[in-house]
Records
---
Amino acid sequence: MGKPFVKRRLHLKPVVWKSIRQDIELSVLSAVFFGLCAAFIISAYDAGVTLLYTSVNGYGLWYLALSFVAVLIIQDAYFYFIHRAFHHPLFFKWLHYGHHRSGDPTPWTSFAFDLPEAIIQGLFFVGIVFLIPLHFITLIAALMTMTVWAVFTHLGFELFPSQFFPQWFGRWFIGSTHHAIHHHKYRVHYGLYFTFWDKLLGTQDSNYERIPNQKISNH
Ligand SMILES: [Zn+2]
Ligand SMILES: [Zn+2]
């Protein structure tokens, strides 16, 4: 048996409503900018200058899956390096403070970005449609994955018992606990979907992989 649901919460302190309100304000601002990005992408598609396409036969079915995985891998790398840069003392205050202002994350923190951060995040999707051929379905699937993943990693509790996923999954994919540690410690766990860059570049908390194992062996 896994831990009861209430014991899987990761917050050290009670959630503060003022923080949630601030997160919502930033999220609305970010959403307005992301809407502008979407409008730009559609206009560029209409002008025929993007690599977006609409016919599944264009590159074949296998390419839909391949390009979807490619977008996630490229976005994960992009996010890791910009996120690490955001935490540099020169940039943190005006680029990334908004996302960390609430301390413990809640789902409302998922898209709580200062406007400069929202611009840098949005530029990824504005840029990717000029770099690799993407079907509209692939683009929408990547956007949905990003949204669901962001909410999942900012839940503030573990949605699933530790035994729900196989151990290798927890080692290579980022979940609520992994990202909550980033919100507590700042100096570790900069990745978005995968732990690959954190492991490779030594920014994974040294206790992270031992904690889930201990949980499993205790039950
Ligand atoms: Zn976060
Ligand atoms: Zn951060």
---
Amino acid sequence: MSDYDAIIVGAGHNGLTAAVVLQRAGLRTLCLEANTYSGGMSATVELIDGFKYEIAGSVRFPTAPKINSELGLDTLPTIESEIMSVNLGEHGEEAMIFHSDPMAMMTHLNEKHGMEAVMAMANLYAWSVGPGKALGRFDALALPKTIDEMYACADNEDERRAIHEMLFGSAMDVVDRFLPDKEKHAVIRGMLAFLAVNSTYRGPYTPGSATCLAFAMAMPQRGPDDHQTQGRHRCAG
Ligand SMILES: Cc1cc2nc3c(=O)[nH]c(=O)nc-3n(C[C@H](O)[C@H](O)[C@H](O)COP(=O)(O)OP(=O)(O)OC[C@H]3O[C@@H](n4cnc5c(N)ncnc54)[C@H](O)[C@@H]3O)c2cc1C
């Protein structure tokens, strides 16, 4: 008889999450890891004595509240970082500073990159609404949607187009539309391209990489009672 009901290979944050869920469900669970540390790409590790490095992940995108509470993450002390990441230009351009607070980011864009950049970012956030619903970005404990169910999430033609673009377009298809000036907006375009690369491990021109942009830009939708509405229901056909 086996000693374990479930064996998980890899202690990245997804493997660790699966291990917690299965163990709490009463299964005897083993989580195996090839590295000497857990956390995978989202680990912070002392690579040189006295200096801790993020292996990869630095930006904490919003997580579904249900996941936070089920894992007890909402009980842990957190350090709110005002700035999530910075993209430096190659030729001394203004840096693109990714603030945690969208309003602070818009102020930065307005002051350093101009109104065009503010409008582009606002349009990008608006673009991500349909895809955010289609992805079930803030759903928890729900099966992934079928393609038809994803399209059914669109409330209007713009959202339907954005969902289509998310599924079949590249991150750069979207970036080129909202920020077409390759020189003037190079640092912002670079940061948005990176959002796609760090999730797909492929280039931002790869078809389907627009999904990563949508994942990163999607915000929880709030209803009149100020609770999250996104993720409460499955989009109906
Ligand atoms: C450069 C970069 C920057 C990123 N920045 C961000 C960011 O800012 N914010 C964000 O949210 N996401 C970011 N990501 C994405 C994020 O890191 C990944 O989505 C996330 O780490 C995936 O988690 P995972 O548990 O699925 O896999 P991983 O974190 O890759 O974990 C997999 C684990 O499995 C182990 N493993 C693999 N094979 C075996 C085996 N055969 N036996 C035992 N162990 C094995 C590996 O050693 C590893 O520890 C970034 C990714 C990259 C590459």
---
Amino acid sequence: MTTAPGFVRVCAVTELEDDTPKRVDLDGTAVSVVRTAGEVFAINDMCSHANVSLSEGEVEDCQIECWLHGSSFDLRTGKPSGLPATRPVPVYPVKIIGDDVLVSVTQES
Ligand code: FES
């Protein structure tokens, strides 16, 4: 279902558990969808340090932590909070329409 240009439904809000990332595939792009602090975020699922899945990491205070070496990325900006990662991870705009979570990977937020 597409209700806005570029936005694709990825799941229902009710399918998301707080602070538990859900990995989805959008047109070949792996995205981690996270509900935390009353908001839903979408961040590219690949750590910018060594291409491991961020959705296997832990979420706390709007940060998602890479399980391999411990860098955390801000879910709002994609910026790493500390080494070893130095490059940001793309984040994507999210729309909530009713119970649907829509994400656009054609534009970075
Ligand atoms: S692979 Fe993610 S911090 Fe190293």
